[in-house]
């Protein structure tokens, strides 16, 4: 493990403890796998295969529960892709965590800082809500698919 990744792993373990969560060996292993693949969107199959190879008693329901917990705590985000199903992506220390995904072709794009600032400003203007930590997924039709299909 490289030094920066080690620090991030230790920071996340400390965060879990601050949330009154036990840091079990399977949870630690799952967290490290997610960090090691932080630039990818992981399928449940990839995660389950890794956990099964590392731990003989890798219970599928435990993996799902830990993923749900990590998502609730804002460590990961789940995204649903047409034709691919649900994917999990590390988002804990990323400021912008929004995506727009085409329902037709499945192309996913990460939102940019400009969109984030506009949404945050609208939340403040309309609802008086400030200091947003935005994590959202927009589903629709990309310009290419709209162009190729008059009903999209």
Explain this structure:
It is built from 6 helices and 6 strands, in the order ααβααββββαβα. α1 (3-18) packs across α2 (25-36) and α2 (25-36) crosses α3 (44-54). With 152 residues, the chain is α+β, with helices and mostly antiparallel strands. Helices cover 48% and strands 19% of the residues. The strands form 2 sheets. Strands 1-3-2 form a 3-stranded antiparallel sheet. Strands 5-4-6 form a 3-stranded mixed sheet, with no helix packed on it. It has 2 domains: 1-92, Arc Repressor Mutant, subunit A; 95-152, Dna Ligase, domain 1 (2-Layer Sandwich), CATH 3.30.1490.
Q: How helix-rich are the residues, as a percent range?
A: 40-55%
Number of helices: 6
Any idea of the CATH topology of the largest domain? Arc Repressor Mutant, subunit A
How many structural domains can be distinguished in the coordinates? 2
Helix/strand class? alpha+beta
CATH top level class name of the largest domain = Mainly Alpha
Low-confidence stretches: none
Main β-sheet, spatial strand arrangement: 1-3-2
């Amino acid at each position: 493990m490289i030094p920066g990744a080690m620090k991030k792993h230790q920071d996340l373990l400390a965060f879990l403890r601050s949330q009154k969560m036990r840091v079990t060996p399977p949870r630690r292993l799952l967290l490290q796998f997610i960090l090691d693949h932080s630039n990818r969107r992981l399928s449940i199959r990839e995660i389950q295969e890794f956990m099964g190879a590392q731990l003989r008693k890798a219970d599928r329901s435990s993996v799902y529960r830990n993923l749900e917990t990590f998502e609730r705590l804002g460590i990961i985000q789940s995204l649903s892709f047409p034709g691919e199903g649900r994917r999990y992506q590390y988002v804990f220390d990323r400021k912008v965590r929004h995506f727009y995904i085409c329902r037709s072709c499945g192309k996913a794009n990460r939102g940019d800082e400009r969109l984030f600032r506009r949404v945050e400003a609208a939340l403040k203007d309309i609802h008086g809500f400030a200091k947003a930590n935005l994590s959202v997924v927009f589903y629709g039709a990309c310009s290419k698919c709209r162009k190729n299909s008059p009903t999209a």
